[in-house]
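Anyone opening a protein record will find just a pair of labelled lines. The record below illustrates this layout.
***
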Amino acid sequence: MAQTAKKLPRKKYAMFFILIGAVCSAVGALLVFSEYGGLPLYSKKVYDLPWYILIVGVLVLFYGIYQRTANRRLGEEVSFSGGSAKSFFLKYALIFALLVLVIVVICIEPAFLKLDVMFDILAQSSIKLIIALGICFTLLIAGTDLSAGRMVGLAAVISASMLQKPTYASRFFPNLPQVPVILPILLAVLACMCFGTLNGFLVAKFGMHPFIATLATQVIIYGACSLYFDMPPNNSQPIGGVRQDFQDLAQFKLFGRISILVPIALGVTLIIWFVLNKTVFGKNVYAIGGNTEAAVVSGVNVFRTIMGIFILASALSGFGGVLEAARTAGATNNYGTGYELDAIAACSVGGVSLAGGVGKVSGIVVGVLIFTVIQYGLQFIGVSPMWQQIIKGIIIAVAVAIDLSKYHKK
């Protein structure tokens, strides 16, 4: 028997969230400003909880305002039913599970409420997000890119090797004059883009499955990077002593607390969102992922689009590798190992279908944050790394199972 949906005017629905958001914002702001005024109204044992109340309140308030102004786009009524509620909780099951985990971590170690913890999580997520945003293009056409991690290592080694301090004793290029920081970065990204071009050509020209094409390229990149890394006088020694202006690209902190990586990742995210949602290229990516034959009939240049996908993915992997070298102030040929698997897992958890044609940038952001929070939170309370891997694997399996179940029902 079909369930009757209950309907509520969107204005009332919106006003509920506006009211809740306004109250939370006011309470959070009062508690925060009371601390700065020297008369804190809360116990120090809750650390920066007032800031989180303020942040959540502002987000809820904006959601309510969005709903209040969305009558024309979303309709004047909001429907509720048992089926829609079940669908909602199924769709966001991992997020609810993440919230439960965060609450458990906070109960065990309240220091997890510090704002610095959140800033650390955002910083650790930034480079992973940039790489995942590149790989998502290959997943959207029902492919993958197993070479992304090795491209991270290649870009890290190339950029770090050319941006060492002149006074450093073990320079990779002893006679290399000091060059503008942008030059080695561009060379590192361009080197990765050359291999991305090879990936795209193998897939687009010969119809090779992306798994095999990128696996072959992965091996080639690692071999080439290792040969470069083993050049005398370096002889496979870890590269260190990088210049401060290079380190500042990833280590500089805004307001003394927020890593520069966070706004960089935000900028890249906005660009990728625009490319996927507002450009012909982005629409072609979804078209090819949904049905390649139909895309060809519609006039989509499949060869050019696939080439562009893999070149763009390699550029983002290269850029991530440069930032990783700057963040750690060094590099080895083993940098980036396994990064591609983490990126693929984050995309799948974030709702990017492995069958192609389905996925959103917002979902990828959520997927990356989920894995980072889980890893950081479990480390924070001293959980064994082996258990961390088990939990991570369970999450990947559950996410993919949920994704596949949607298509089986269809």
Observations:
- The beta strands are 6-9, 77-80, 253-254, 258-259.
- The chain has two domains: 1-88, 92-409.
- The two ends are 20 Å apart (CA to CA).
